Amino acid sequence: MPQLPTTSYAVLGLLSIAPMSGYELARAAEQSIANFWPIAKSQVYSELSRLEDLGYVQGSDIRQQRLPDKRIFEPTDVGTKVLDEWLASPEYETERYRSGFLVKFFFADRMPDEVLMKMLKDCRDSAASTLKMFEQLIASMAGNPDAFFRMQTASFGRKHIQANHQWAQDVLTQLDPSSKPKKATARKTATDRRKKGHKDE
Amino acid sequence: MPQLPTTSYAVLGLLSIAPMSGYELARAAEQSIANFWPIAKSQVYSELSRLEDLGYVQGSDIRQQRLPDKRIFEPTDVGTKVLDEWLASPEYETERYRSGFLVKFFFADRMPDEVLMKMLKDCRDSAASTLKMFEQLIASMAGNPDAFFRMQTASFGRKHIQANHQWAQDVLTQLDPSSKPKKATARKTATDRRKKGHKDE
DNA sequence: GTTCCCATGTAACCCGTTACATGATTTT
DNA sequence: AAAATCATGTAACGGGTTACATGGGAAC
After folding, report:
1. Contact by Cβ (8 Å): B24, B39
2. B56, B70, B66: which is closest to B11 by C-alpha?
3. Facing residues of A97 across strands?
4. Protein-contacted positions of strand D (CB under 7 Å)
5. What is the pLDDT of residues A53-99, one digit of tens each?
6. Concatenated DSSP letters of B121-184
7. Cα-Cα end-to-end distance for chain A
8. B194 close contact with A: CB closer than 8 A
9. CA gap A68, A46 in Å, rounded
């Protein structure tokens, strides 16, 4: 068996919790793993047909009167085996982090000061609102021991967003001496550097 | 001007610091932005020729006696303008986070307990070693005001890795009652749940 | 003598994203 | 009357990854 991309296992895993149609699966993914493994709606369908071709899931037609017919998918025995093998293998799983934000920030020397400040404030504020979302999510699962692992993934998200928020606030206070006047200018402003660096030799 | 992928701006930005050959650029990227925006060696070359076609960079042949010839690229005036426009635009930049680790962890109900514990320990330990790396990196830039932004990106990485580390340690202590015997079993073990859930209705 | 560094790429793959298409039904 | 929800997809694109190819000089 050729090893599948993580998305396949995610789909298998979600179907192992409850058999679902593609539509329902897409929604389930959106409400559960999307924060650390988003799956596009269209990808759900292509993934399902791949898994069907491999014999890892099977779909059954369900006719409905009011709504259009749907196909409910559930893992086959082989599919469940494949899933459990994946879960039992201690292999390192891909972690990808890419931040266009940081790329921009990395070159902030060339950036107008207002834009930089705005960027950081946006970063901080959006982190604050995402943080609230995570806290709600966690609260909704607190006290339910069956949701332990799900809750821990949310807790993971919360910790990371907190890190984001703290970082942005940190940088802001370091850049704006007015808010914390103890330390003098920790750095030359970007404008200073541009003036100096224009002919730098 | 059609908006370019972030990688293009990253390349332009690095070349704006110092003209470089493709080889040198790949190394520079590896040592600077790779932690939040990795660029494959091969992609460097394809990116450079794209930017050259667009007229954003120009390469000049440098002949060398001992080593093979190389082409030094530097941004054109148009290229610099494009870069600065990107930096001045306060548009939201793509942030992608994907963790196969968390996908696996999300389904830890189906996972053998030892594998789960090993996974978490690996997570914690690798975080610890990455943390050291970041701390070294930060120390190497401390006190240099010209490296302010670069240092802050490293600080960002450190904060996130710290979050990782704390999270893994948290979960470990919650799962292993022997280390912190105050709180009783915070959850049923995975094995318990499997026994119970085998025929669950 | 083999392995590492310099140096420059080509080719293929495929996952993930975005946009498009369709149509009935329920809600506002 | 319009918008949202239920439901299932197709098509195209492209960015990013991996693997492959080459070849000389330096270092061990």
Report:
1. no
2. B56
3. B97
4. 6-12, 14-20, 23-26
5. 999 999 887 666 555 567 899 999 999 999 999 999 988 788 999 99
6. HHHHHHHHHHHHHHHHHHHHHTT-GGGHHHHHHHHHHHHHHHHHHHHHHHHHHHH-TTTS-SS-
7. 61
8. no
9. 20
